[in-house]
Amino acid sequence: MRVERLADNKVKIFISYDDLEKRGIDREEMWQNGRKVQELFWDMMEYAYAEVGFEVAGPISIEAFTMPTEGIIVIVTQVPSLPLGQYEEEDGDDQEETFEVQVNMTSVVVVFFDFEDVIRAAAAIGDHADIKSTLYANDQKYYLYIHEDEMEEEWFESVWTILLEYGAHSNVTKAFLDDYGKVIVDGYPFLTILRYFS
């Protein structure tokens, strides 16, 4: 497990699939919010507090980025307190803090630093060039957003390995790309690239 403080109200935590296996948690179970997953989350929060002083107090937002071969990146953000319903009081006892947690499962984004690398990746993928994705341009870089349903395919791990030969995993979200990026090709960008640049 590794932790990095991104801002006063935000931390990034990486947990490998080996770490999950040692805790008896498989990849699919990670999204089911069971007892073991809840225990893992609070262990992560204790670790984040010990390592970088990040303390959970009030509502938080959680973004989880799955990486096919390495593990899972969890970004925890402290969000402004809600004006109402933030605390509960029962039978005159002290007020007890409650948490609002929003979990957003997002797909993988790969960044390419040159369009030639995008062309090379398309050629290298070959038979799986029909992977459903969206190619964006932003700040002289190219971002490939891969749709979630593609990540469930048996062949995706080999595709992911090829993509990382020509690009790098990015923590940029689809929402950011939609707001600030320019869509180059939506749907099957590698097929389009091979059609014009093969």
UniProtKB/TrEMBL annotation:
Q: Which InterPro entries match?
A: MecA_C_sf, Neg-reg_MecA
Q: Which Gene3D superfamilies match?
A: 3.30.70.1950
Q: Which family is it part of? A: Belongs to the MecA family.
Q: Which PANTHER family match?
A: ADAPTER PROTEIN MECA (PTHR39161), ADAPTER PROTEIN MECA 2 (PTHR39161:SF2)
Under what name is this protein listed? Adaptor protein MecA
What is the species listed in this Swiss-Prot or TrEMBL entry? Fodinisporobacter ferrooxydans
